[in-house]
Amino acid sequence: MPRIIPTDETQAHGLEDCLAMLDAVAFEPEDEASLANGAVALKRLANNRSFLGDLLIEQLKRGHRNSGIESAYGPQSIVLSRMRGRCFLRANIWPSEEESCFRASGSDAFVYGVPHDHNFSFLTAGYFGPGYGSDYYEYDYEDVAGYRGEVCDLRFVERTNLEEGKLMLYRANRDVHSQLPPESMSVSLNIMHIDPAQAWSDQYGFDLDSNAVTGVLNPTSTECFMRCAVGLGGEEAADFAEWAGREHPSDRLRLASFEARSGLVMGAERDDLWRQAELSGSLMVSREAATRRRRLEQAYQSA
């Protein structure tokens, strides 16, 4: 489960002081001194019981005009800073089942009951309310190929809540959790660590009944660009997709190259393409290709 960071810090500071501490010591969660500095910075911010409410009221007064705080996550998340080195600050709102937004959008909109890991590390603090609950698991990322249906060695640790004042470090590609709605509206604060290499590290969804991978949750723009380029045609795009399917170091992009090309062919040609994918030398691509071929066969038999 995420690493609990013990703290008896009682001082409080504002957003700018928190950011100044992160500027002074870059947040690198695998470095103990940096992690300790980040924990103090975040805990002091969490001890400030008024800063977030004041910030939200100010934004409401401005009608979101001329705001330097923009969110790429939607109404549940509030980005509190721009990138500072390799991290940024955000706040997350966690509605209970009694909130109108929960009833209107459903649990999936807030990732409740969707077991997943993260391909990035982040430090989180309970800021307001009883906090979301989680069933926590651990697994060994390096032992997972990543194809859908692959059974993993998920190890249950415990169920606990992110209550006010609690600090936890979610470790990239190690900690898995299935979140549960809090008993009442809650808020968490996060220091998000961003590593450029993480785009090629998969984030998985899991099925807890079977401990199986349900899919990759972080598709990249590169995959989308490839599908668009191949779909639009052009010899160069086709050549690149063929090369990527054979030699690209990312299994995910290799699979995307076959998916892109399969949309341009039908029948026996499509089956032949996925047969090539089965023989690609990648376990993930091979298993996904086998699934595609079974579906093609079933569709042919039912036609």
UniProtKB/TrEMBL annotation:
Name recorded for this polypeptide: Transposase
Protein species of origin: Qipengyuania aquimaris
